[in-house]
Amino acid sequence: xxxxxxxxxxxxxxxxxxxxxxxxxxxxxxxxxxxxxxxxxxxxxxxxxxxxxxxxxxxxxxxxxxxxxxxxxxxxxxxxxxxxxxxxxxxxxxxxxxxxxxxxxxxxxxxxxxxxxxxxxxxxxxxxxxxxxxxxxxxxxxxxxxxxxxxxxxxxxxxxxxxxxxxxxxxxxxxxxxxxxxxxxxxxxxxxxxxxxxxxxxxxxxxxxxxxxxxxxxxxxxxxxxxxxxxxxxxxxxxxxxxxxxxxxxxxxxxxxxxxxxxxxxxxxxxxxxxxxxxxxxxxxxxxxxxxxxxxxxxx
Length: 300
What we know:
Radius of gyration: 17 Å
Helix content: 25-40%
Number of domains: 1
């Protein structure tokens, strides 16, 4: 992800139906998955570790029988040459062809100077949160009004520096495939989770967040008792949600881009599993899933 100067708001969603009981994702479950992913090092895009990470995520997703799991393996040119990327998608069928995407990236930044870089928070935390959300949905037997697509992106991190052709390969590929299949109009919203495991959790919404999604996030957090863990007026972020925004899809980046004092652990050897908090992961997963509940009309 990368901080940007401000742009503008967008769009609309919703609908309403009978309230469906809300299943709380487990922070301990999220932490377990995040730790297991973070121990695959290195896992920068194109590495054997990234391939193993994708296979691990795919295997875990397939253990949840309610989900339809697939891998999209593709190649793209980067400053490091042509690399192979893998997006993993786990779909919970709904009652409508319309869908919401809930996403996270699993790749870690490449550092020649840190060969065992874990990327526990920046990469691992979002994956853990998504898998915990999926487990909660499976256990509850939820059949949502809209299809829910949990997507684990490869290639979020730049090989060198975020530019055209370097970074966000997985999310750009996913949106390109939606466009190719004429499915962009069916995507009602995109919720991204990134860097959501810090013990001092404060999700800060980017100024360009769609106002309805921002209001939904704040309402979800309030109803769950997590007002102190989310705020407006965060930095403008370039992240995996950006490809969706650029395609006209309403998207939000749930991110805490203050990882340690003065962001000291971000993209350093300090981004390790001991910094992750099960409580923060559970809070982040719950806010995201509560947003899904509201956006799909499973509760007002």
